[in-house]
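Exercise 7. Given the encoded structure of a 211-residue chain, write a plausible sequence.
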């Protein structure tokens, strides 16, 4: 019996995983579905799987999607403790008129030596992202609204974009004024002033700002 047959790979298991991730899957996920290295190599050689980068594959015939590069960057960075962040998260949350020049990903500071995949910018954070600082969009783990807005404010995005993001997030009820203030307090004084000014402007424009 060949090694490939002995491994008994579960194709349905892998398809279900990949379907939730826009056709992508990691080496660890493939192994969990019974695909050992020899099986992965076999399917890549026969064109069923595409080897995207180290540790990351894609089902060849899975339909393309608009955010697949973001999905690939998140998976490559480590789906368990990484999150799409900054302008990329702002774009996925549809909170401002920004076009990210690269996929922005935040990982714990302990992983600061991570080599960024092509087209990806890696940010690090001293404290792991807490559950209330992340959310899911299209199967991708991203920073939640308050964390995202404060991150881009600290990174130097234009004040008008901060104001637009704050107003939009409050109007849609995906963050609150208190949450934004509390998150901004963890950063420098410039960021605090930017968030306070954006909140004041939102209130003047009669945008609901729940506490």
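Solution.
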């Amino acid at each position: 019996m060949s090694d490939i047959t002995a491994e008994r790979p579960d194709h349905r298991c892998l398809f279900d995983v990949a379907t939730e991730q826009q056709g992508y899957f990691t080496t660890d996920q493939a192994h969990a579905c019974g695909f050992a290295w020899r099986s992965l190599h076999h399917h890549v050689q026969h064109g069923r799987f595409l080897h995207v980068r180290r540790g990351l594959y894609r089902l060849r015939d899975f339909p393309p999607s608009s955010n697949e590069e973001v999905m690939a960057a998140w998976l490559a960075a480590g789906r368990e403790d990484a999150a799409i962040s900054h302008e990329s998260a702002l774009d996925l949350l549809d909170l401002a008129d920004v076009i990210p020049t690269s996929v922005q990903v935040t990982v714990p500071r302990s992983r600061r030596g991570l080599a960024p995949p092509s087209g990806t910018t890696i940010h690090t954070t001293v404290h792991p992202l807490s559950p209330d600082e992340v959310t899911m969009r299209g199967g991708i783990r991203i920073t939640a609204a308050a964390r995202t807005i404060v991150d881009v404010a600290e990174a130097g995005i234009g004040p008008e974009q901060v104001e637009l993001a704050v107003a939009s997030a409050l109007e849609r009820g995906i963050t609150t004024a208190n949450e934004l203030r509390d998150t901004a307090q963890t950063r420098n004084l410039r960021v605090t002033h930017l968030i306070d000014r954006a909140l004041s402007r939102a209130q003047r424009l009669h945008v609901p700002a729940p506490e």
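Remark. Confidence is low (pLDDT under 50) at residues 1-6. Students should compare their own answers with the one above.
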